[in-house]
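Slide 14.
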Amino acid sequence: MGSDLSAKDCLPSKPFFFMLDAAFHNISSVYSDRSIRKALDEHRLTADDVDLIREFVLEISASQGLSTSRTNKITGILVNWRQSLLVPYRDASVSAMYQGIENQSA
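Slide 15: predicted structure.
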């Protein structure tokens, strides 16, 4: 009695460690939404900052096929980095960006 299944057919399509990671780490866009909401409540972001962050993350996610985990990370970085800038994102010049880098390393 021969089987039509090969050893390859019995292997998972994703590596085992990835399947374990997904089982134990619930990755959801709720995390980035919570980060944005908290920053808005604390007046660390403007509504326009939020629009720019969401537009940017949506664009790179769609064009580069980023995972939810990666978009959460980028959102978190942009939310937190805004604290280092002295102006809203839309008003930030190149020199304001450099000043933000300086503020972060201080």
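Speaker note: The chain is about 65% helix and 0% strand.
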